Amino acid sequence: MSVRNKIEVQSGVFFITFTCAGWLPLFEITSGYHVVYRWFDYLKSQGHHIAGYVIMPNHVHVLIGFCRSGKSINTIVANGKRFMAYELVKLLRSQDRQDILSQLSGWVNATDAMRNKRHQVFEPSFDRKECFRLPFMQQKADYIHQNPCKEGLARIPEEYLHSSARYYYTGEQGIYPVITFMELQDVDLSAAR
Fold this sequence. Notes:
Blueprint: E1 2-3, E2 12-19, H1 26-30, H2 33-45, E3 49-55, E4 59-66, H3 73-94, H4 98-106, H5 110-114, E5 126-130, H6 134-150, H7 165-170, H8 181-184
Antiparallel strand pairs: 1-5, 2-4, 2-5, 3-4
Helix pairs in contact: 2-3
């Protein structure tokens, strides 16, 4: 479901997906995977939990345990996308990728342009599914981890570097440390942070 409506709850486990504008492989083009990890660091510093992820060349899937923080989940994700957009634009400028920057500029709608928006880095909304039950969390974790295999980026899930699959399949943390959705069951997300 594409989110243009406010998520009413302030805590819980959510499967979040956001996509680069025009499905451009911006994370791959810029080698900007670290930008997503920096957002994850920020989320953790605010008391949230990363329980699974995959950073594909042109989109991100993440399973997040949001604690009650006083900010809406919509705001948290929107601010994260804004931060990542600025960082990816900086990388494109440093790599002198005027071709991509021009393309991103051309996708800014008139209303946003009037507000001085210069680049459309991500699709305007994001997809989210609230995860109430363990079988649904398992389904989403499996989907996340199989994504690179379906796209031909890895033979087996744990081979793909920008994913939490290694931890789920082998018990060894990958590039970015996570907790599993099972471990997340022991965390009180409703407690105010």
